């Protein structure tokens, strides 16, 4: 990805973060330059000798892992492309949007942040979704800040669109707020481009697959409240995206349901061919269907969100 010329204030921000350390939460609307700024912060801090945890909290336009997941990479020293950074942990939200999935969004970020802090000398840079307008978005960001307790809140905005979120932090002294203007040269992406990005990521993730059978007598099925939309006999789970998770509830792999044999308690799903599933403890139902045969946007949202 090409990098815009970083504004001078970005360089000053790196110096402040390097000196004060802590957790950095980056907030901005879509096409505000938020992810570009995050890449710059991670790269510059690593180049200056800091150990950095990059937490990709944008499950719709994810960089590290497949869509519907939040990812974490532990970095130290100079590196090249952030998209090629090793994925150290991923948390399954189950949707490409936080709408209707606020709880999973918050829990995932908290779990990843806790995992990144095993090395207390490590800085954490958190990129967030572009969901910033409206009462629900403001409340979600408020709860996110309250839960994660960042040392720095970096707000990228063009016309004060982040101010309703920042006003919720007035009088609180836990975090330094950095108000930055969005770079004028950031390219806007259409909804179709965003859908295409997600679909390309899914296609790459499921490029080669095999059928895996899960014995539900030995494996816990979570997210089962979603089964209520399948009460009618003609409706099945085929195509539903799921996560096969380890004992710590982090993703081992994503899968696509082929069939659920309720009598035998066997869940059959397509998973990437090379993944080792030995540590799978739970299967969590997601909120979208994936059809790998689709030529265009192969994701289909279910109707309960």
Description:
This protein is 25% helix and 29% strand. β10 (240-245) and β11 form a beta hairpin. It contains 6 helices and 14 strands. The model is unreliable at 229-234 and 301-305 (pLDDT under 50). The chain starts with 7 loop residues before the first helix and ends with a strand.
Structural features:
Elongation Factor Tu (Ef-tu), domain 3, 29% strand, disordered C terminus, Rossmann fold, 305 residues, alpha/beta
- The count of β-strands is 14
> How confident is the prediction overall: mean pLDDT?
87
Percentage of residues in strands: 25-35%
**Helix/strand structural class:** alpha/beta
At the third CATH level, what is the topology name of the largest domain?
Rossmann fold
Shape: globular
Total count of helical runs of at least 4 residues:
6
Q: Please state how the strands of the largest beta sheet are arranged side by side.
A: 4-3-2-5-1-6-7
**The number of domains:** 2
Give the biggest sheet.
7 strands, mixed
Under CATH, the homologous superfamily of the largest domain reads P-loop containing nucleotide triphosphate hydrolases
Quickly name the level 1 CATH class of the largest domain: Alpha Beta
CATH architecture descriptor text of the largest domain:
3-Layer(aba) Sandwich
List the uncertain runs. 229-234, 301-305
Order of helices and strands: HEHEEEHEHEHEHEEEEEEE
Q: How far from one another are the termini? A: 33 Å
